[in-house]
C-alpha cells in the first residue's frame, strides 16, 4: 500500500485530533475518509457539470453532426 505524508500546523492537528476523538476514530481513519470524500465530491461535481454542458449543447451538436 502506498503512503502519503501530510504536514499540518499544530492548530490543524489539534482540530483533526478533536474531530477524530469526537467520532471515536483514529486521526488516520478520519483524515483518510475526509480526503476520499473530497475526491469523490470533486468527481461528482465534474460529472454534473459535464452532463449540464452536454444537455445545453445537445441541439447544436445535433446540427453540427
Question: Your description of this structure?
Answer:
This protein is mainly α. It has one domain. 77% of the residues lie in helices and 0% in strands. It has 3 helices and no strands. The protein has helices spanning 10-22, 27-56, 58-64. It is elongated, with a radius of gyration of 20 Å.
Summarize the structure.
This protein is mainly α. It has helices at 10-22, 27-56, 58-64.
List the helices and strands and how they pair.
Blueprint: H1 10-22, H2 27-56, H3 58-64
Domain Arc-like DNA binding: 5-39
Pfam families: Arc
GO molecular function: DNA binding
H and E order: HHH
Distance from N terminus to C terminus (CA atoms, Å) equals 46 Å
Residue ranges: pLDDT <50 for 5 or more in a row?
A: none
Radius of gyration over all CA atoms, rounded: 20 Å
Choose one word for the global shape: elongated
Keywords:
mainly alpha, 0% strand, 65 residues, 3 helices
Amino acid at each position: 500500500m502506498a503512503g502519503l505524508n501530510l504536514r499540518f500546523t499544530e492548530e490543524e492537528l489539534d482540530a483533526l485530533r478533536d474531530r477524530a476523538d469526537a467520532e471515536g476514530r483514529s486521526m488516520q481513519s478520519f483524515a483518510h475518509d475526509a480526503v476520499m470524500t473530497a475526491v469523490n465530491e470533486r468527481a461528482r461535481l465534474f460529472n454534473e457539470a459535464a452532463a449540464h454542458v452536454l444537455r445545453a449543447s445537445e441541439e447544436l451538436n445535433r446540427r453540427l453532426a
